[in-house]
Amino acid sequence: MKKYSIIALMVLFAVSFWNCEKDDLCAETTPTTPRVVIQFYNNVTPTELKPVTDLVIKEFGTDSKLVSNEAATDDARYLFNTSTVSVPLRTDALETKFNFILNNGGTGEATDVLTFTYTKKDTYISRACGYKTTFEITNPTAISTTNWIQSVTVENVKIENEDETHIKIYF
């Protein structure tokens, strides 16, 4: 009788593994929600890229800042000194506002507010990856002040990937 009990337990143990599923992992190459790619240009020579100096991008109405340099431990981690930045849009709203602060903390500090108004579309990727959201700008980017930004052009209203420039800012 003991022999049958042990065999029954081993069969039950073996059968329990047949119900297990393979791990469902999201590969790093899986497309995710894209950010808005913004390039900065020289207002005098519109075809020339122009890097910004000590730019801080801060979500309007909060203290949340975009990180430029993950390795930095002080306020330098928030300073952009480049001609291209990628900005995330809110997936829980139809509008996102950012303060673009040029020369942050220095002489000539200037702030402009950029408002992105858009529609969004959620696309199911997989159980492990969840959803990907794509955006379409419905109202060209609005500037509430003109402290340092001279003009803004929307190059591509559909934000489906980060392989192209969506917005050009001239200053």
Q: Taking all residues together, what is the mean pLDDT? A: 87
Distance between the termini: 88 Å
Low-confidence stretches: none
Tally of separate helices? 1
Order of adjacent strands in the largest pleated sheet? 2-4-5-6-8
Biggest pleated-sheet summary: 5 strands, antiparallel
**Helix coverage percent of residues?**
under 10%
The 3D shape can be described as elongated
| Structure classification | mainly beta
- Beta-strand segment tally: 9
Rg for CA atoms: 24 Å
Structure description:
Strand 5 and strand 6 form a beta hairpin. The protein starts with a helix and ends with a strand. The model has no long low-confidence stretch (mean pLDDT 87). The radius of gyration is 24 Å and the shape is elongated. The relative contact order is 0.20. The chain has 171 residues and is mainly β. The longest helix is centred in the first third of the chain and has 17 residues, at 2-18. Strands 2-4-5-6-8 form a 5-stranded antiparallel beta sheet, with no helix packed on it. Helix content is 10%, strand content 37%.
Sequence-ordered SSE layout with sheet pairings:
Layout: H1 2-18, E1 36-41, E2 56-59, E3 84-87, E4 95-102, E5 110-126, E6 130-143, E7 151-154, E8 158-159, E9 167-170
At a glance:
This protein is mainly beta. The protein contains 1 helix and 9 strands, in the order H-E-E-E-E-E-E-E-E-E.
